[in-house]
Amino acid sequence: xxxxxHHVQPSPLVSLRNWSFGVGALLVLLGxxxxxxxxxxxxxxxxxxxxxxxxxxVMRIIAAFGTYTWKGFWLTLLCGALSVVSGTAMLAMxxxxxxxxxxxxxxxxLFEAGGKIAAAFSVPRDYPWGWILLDGVVTAVLGAILxxxxxxxxxxxxxxxxxxxxIASGVMLLGAGVWLNRAVSRLGAR
Length: 190
Description:
Layout: H1 12-36, H2 39-66, H3 73-92, H4 94-120, H5 129-148, H6 151-187
Helix pairs in contact: 1-6, 2-3, 2-4, 2-6, 3-4, 4-5, 4-6, 5-6
């Protein structure tokens, strides 16, 4: 038999375990880096979203003029113009963009926290549901902190919260990797 015939594919659990460990470790490292320089993640998020809004607005305006006979021409043009103005403002005035993002991201983080807390109570009993619950509670606290931040604190808080969120999510994935490792050992999977 050839050596290819003896090649055994890893089980899906092994792949998932490896993925959990790899992504978990990467998220923890990114979180530590973001924690060391909290203003950098805030600016990065602001410029990324501002750039996306600007590009989307320009594309929407171009699309509107390409279909100027369409019934929704003026609405499409208006939406494109608003997107261009919003993106330009975020790029030109990062502090104002970060303030707006703090409110929006705080809301998103609170929704995510609700999902994580609900997920903690729907996983199998032997799964490390406590890690998911802890991640959900930490995420909820972080979202609440964002809503209470003053404009002067917003950029630092956003960066610190992104850092803590990355670390908490990474630890949850590392915990899942440990659980998967035990499952792989019990099943004797390769």
